[in-house]
């Protein structure tokens, strides 16, 4: 029997929903029937949805504990090509804190409760009992994989599985809600608070805005968080002297909207950044 298929059946017997991964730790793409969600949308953990495709489609949502599906002839080609086995943590009532480097591991050991730990290629998976929304880049080198996500299966790990703590749930919280009503757009330049102008020349400010636009444009994940952090960085440097104009803000908003953010999202993120900095 294929090694990955054997592992998948063993995990499914322990109620861990599994799926095959191809090279690059990626799930198998949708079949021709389901491409671009032509089938009506991928199923979810709680609601199967309109798609009844027997293929291992729809990434994490294809994960199953049914041995008849896992070992079916329909899944066999995927297992022959599979490079690894993945599982859906949320479907098993789990949350994985994915630590991608030594600095992230050091942070976790200082902040998070000890729990079952799995060594990965680049870092560690800390596994907790309980589910929450998944979120990437909650801090440098740290992703959260639970609901609507998959994690690569490596081994059982070591240690006892602890209950999901509030300190992990808080990592996925977005920026604080605004304390004053957010408008749909900014109609006036930001008035400075009389602070010293750090720009020296107009080129300095323009270069800063260009770099900020580039940071948003290059974001490949956690776009919402990237937009907020970029707005925060721009305002912390250029927000107190009165030189930041609507034209500058419009460039930032345009870049964010090109990445899928709505005007309301942009305005809320901008207002939250203002509030955080006391502007």
Task: Give an overview of the whole structure.
This protein is α+β, with helices and mostly antiparallel strands and 279 residues long. It is 34% helix and 14% strand. It has helices at residues 3-13, 67-70, 76-81, 102-111, 166-169, 202-217, 223-238, 246-258, 263-277, and strands at residues 18-22, 26-27, 84-87, 94-99, 116-119, 124-129, 135-139, 142-145, 151-152, 162-163. The strands form 2 sheets. Strands 4, 5, 6, 7, 8 and 10 form a 6-stranded mixed sheet that branches. It has a 4-stranded antiparallel sheet with strand order 2-1-3-9.
Secondary-structure map:
Elements (H helix, E strand, L loop, with lengths): L2 H11 L4 E5 L3 E2 L39 H4 L5 H6 L2 E4 L6 E6 L2 H10 L4 E4 L4 E6 L5 E5 L2 E4 L5 E2 L9 E2 L2 H4 L32 H16 L5 H16 L7 H13 L4 H15 L2
Parallel strand pairs: 6-10
Antiparallel strand pairs: 1-2, 1-3, 3-9, 4-6, 4-8, 5-6, 7-8
């Amino acid at each position: 029997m294929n090694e990955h298929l054997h592992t998948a059946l063993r995990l499914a017997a322990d109620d861990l929903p599994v799926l095959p991964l191809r090279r690059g730790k990626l799930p198998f793409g949708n079949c021709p029937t389901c491409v671009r969600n032509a089938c009506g949308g991928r199923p979810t953990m709680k609601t199967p949805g309109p798609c009844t495709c027997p293929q291992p489609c729809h990434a994490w949502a294809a994960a199953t504990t049914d041995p008849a599906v896992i070992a079916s002839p329909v899944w066999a080609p995927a297992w022959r090509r599979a490079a690894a086995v993945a599982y859906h943590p949320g479907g098993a009532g789990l949350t994985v804190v994915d630590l991608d480097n030594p600095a992230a591991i050091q942070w976790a050991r200082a902040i998070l409760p000890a729990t079952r730990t799995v060594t990965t290629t680049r870092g560690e998976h800390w596994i907790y009992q309980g589910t929450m929304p998944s979120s990437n880049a909650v801090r440098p080198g740290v992703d959260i994989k639970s609901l609507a996500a998959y994690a690569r299966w490596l081994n059982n790990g070591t240690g006892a599985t602890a209950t999901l703590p509030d300190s992990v749930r808080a990592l996925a919280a977005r920026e604080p809600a605004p304390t004053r009503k957010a408008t749909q757009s900014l109609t006036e330049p930001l008035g400075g608070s009389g602070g010293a102008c750090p720009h020296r020349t107009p080129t300095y400010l323009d270069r800063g805005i260009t770099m900020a636009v580039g940071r948003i444009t290059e974001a490949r994940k956690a776009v919402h968080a990237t937009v907020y952090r970029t707005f925060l960085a721009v305002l912390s440097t250029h927000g107190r002297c009165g030189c930041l104009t609507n034209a500058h803000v419009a460039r930032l908003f345009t870049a964010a909207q090109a990445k899928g953010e709505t005007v309301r999202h942009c305005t809320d993120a901008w207002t939250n950044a203002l509030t955080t900095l006391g502007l």
